Amino acid sequence: MSSTNLLIRHAQILLPNGDFLSGDVLIRDRQIAQVAPGIRPPEDATDFTEIDASGLTLLPGVIDPQVHFREPGLEHKEDLFTASCACARGGVTSFLEMPNTRPLTTNQQALDDKLQRAKQKCLVNYGFFIGATGDNTPDLLAVNPTPGIKIFMGSMHGQLLVDKEAALEKIFAQGDRLIAVHAEDQARINQRRQEFAGIKDPAIHSQIQDVTAALNATQLALKLSKKYQRRLHILHMSTGDEAELLRQDKPSWVTAEVTPQHLLLNTDAYAQIGTLAQMNPPLRSPHDNEVLWQALLDGVIDFIATDHAPHTLEEKAQEYPNTPSGMPGVETSLALMLTQAMQGRCTVAQVSHWMSTAVAKAYRIPNKGAIAAGYDADLVLVDLNTYHPVLREELQTKCRWSPFEGWELTGWAVTTIVGGQIAYNKGKLDTNVKGEALRFDARQ
């Protein structure tokens, strides 16, 4: 693959210290070579492209650390190509994908298959979790490369459901690879399903998979993590109770994430968009929104993920509880959060930290998450001055819908650069651009 040499001029550049520099960025051989005001084009440069970024803000590319891209086996919902196109349009330059595909990603063979598919299809960089089944411990210890082990403590059926404490303890006790948990108490969910059986209103979903179900599982994961001092990451934290638990008791080796939908949507959304608001863990109360926001601002929650989990509109049009849980998110996440920054809820620098820098640190992804010489040229130019609505017809995700349809957002990606290549520019994708497999450096 030929590398492109780029010179980005006149941008507002977010520096690693959180300050902004009005200046230029020189990119050579997939990496950032120089960040400074007024860079002159190198005299020896060939295949050289200049980008005039006047009026635009340059940020590190987003690393989305929790997505479900459905390939192999469920490509009618999404596939690696369509999902990576959606990433590029959303300013997401790297993703970490989950193991609940068909076949499940539970061994080296399945992981290698995904890596090979991604190499051929993905416009952006990629990594894939290995899924725990309760009896594949040798695979969990041996496979590479992977950001970590995914455990579904609840909201799952079949092999990937690991909900018994003894089985969980066996996984926590062996090895030192990061464990990422979907923390819901399956026994509580089963009990609540029986209690509320027959109710067709999708709003009941938030009561069936309630705050207690989430808190129970998070407490158990935290207990096992502390017992074995095992690196733990709590996926898509949804409740204020969990955030307050971590505020009181968060070992240095534990991290947590929150999704834009758990910050910006709540149970009121069921009345507005019905089953499109159904996800796992479910949307919570406005009070939970506020507590999660504060935990994010305070550093109790470390970063943001989308849990991009698309289903077709036909699937979502079924009657609850036959409707699948999940919603798309990679295309809207950065603009959603930057809109919050422009409204004063947080800063642009905080958004970039939560969506890029902190993710690279937590998963030990080298050379990502900052605009500095020597870092990979995974970048996004955004327009913080123009508002544009979320429109169904503009979405690149195969499912072609968003829970945020109609929302007026700013901070949309204008240009997305992956490894020094322009993957997306002013509404157009370059599908010849290909990302690379991410590395996860245990020594970092």
Automatic annotation (TrEMBL):
Residues 57-422 form the Amidohydrolase-related domain. The keyword Hydrolase applies. PROSITE patterns: DIHYDROOROTASE_2. Its cofactor is Zn(2+). Keywords: Hydrolase, Metal-binding. The keyword Metal-binding applies. Pfam families: Amidohydro_1 (PF01979). Belongs to the metallo-dependent hydrolases superfamily. DHOase family. Class I DHOase subfamily. PANTHER family: ALLANTOINASE (PTHR43668). Catalyzes the reversible cyclization of carbamoyl aspartate to dihydroorotate. NCBIfam families: PRK07575.1 (NF005751), pyrC_multi (TIGR00857). This is Dihydroorotase. It comes from Gloeocapsopsis crepidinum LEGE 06123.
